[in-house]
């Protein structure tokens, strides 16, 4: 699949978040700049593995949440995108290797002070829920505005094979790179 076709299939548009854009950083079209990273929210729904592959083909990876501000920003964006629906978005967190050992796609361990699992009453995520269609339990994390999820209680573990929208991130370009590119073409 060419980069162009891939981009149009994944869909999703994002205006530049100017208020949060450090001077000199730029994102590719359809990516949203926030802080030091570019983000893209897909329209397409697919498995966790395929989501990760698609982010990779666009030069990024599934989102890794590294600060409370980043969590807040992503939750707000999902709220904006969803309006009346409860669609969830894959992020780059999984315990597929070792049950209960949650890792980001770069191999780093989840920092417990920056974990935002859904908790409400007796519902405690991650619960690795085992059900007849998913005897292997739940090893991938998604995030969204569902039931009583709030900005800092909005992650759920679910089976990796179900299909969902997803969030990619990648490094922004420096404006100078853009300038140079223009001069070269
Ligand atoms: Ca699990
Ligand atoms: Ca769960």
Summarize the helices and strands and which ones pair or pack.
Elements: H1 3-10, E1 25-26, E2 32-34, E3 37-41, H2 48-57, E4 61-62, H3 68-82, E5 88-94, E6 103-104, E7 119-120, E8 123-124, E9 140-144, E10 155-158, E11 165-170, E12 173-174, H4 175-184
Parallel strand pairs: 5-11
Antiparallel strand pairs: 1-12, 2-3, 3-11, 4-11, 5-6, 5-9, 7-8, 9-10
The structure holds calcium ion (CA) (2 copies).
What this model shows, in words?
There is one protein chain. The chain has a single domain, classed as Roll (Mannose-Binding Protein A, Chain A). The chain starts with a helix and ends with a helix. The model has no long low-confidence stretch (mean pLDDT 88). Strands 2, 3, 4, 5, 6, 9, 10 and 11 form an eight-stranded mixed beta sheet that branches. The protein contains four helices and twelve strands; from the N terminus they run H-E-E-E-H-E-H-E-E-E-E-E-E-E-E-H. The protein has 185 residues and is of the alpha+beta class. It binds calcium ion (2 copies). One calcium ion (CA) binds next to loops.
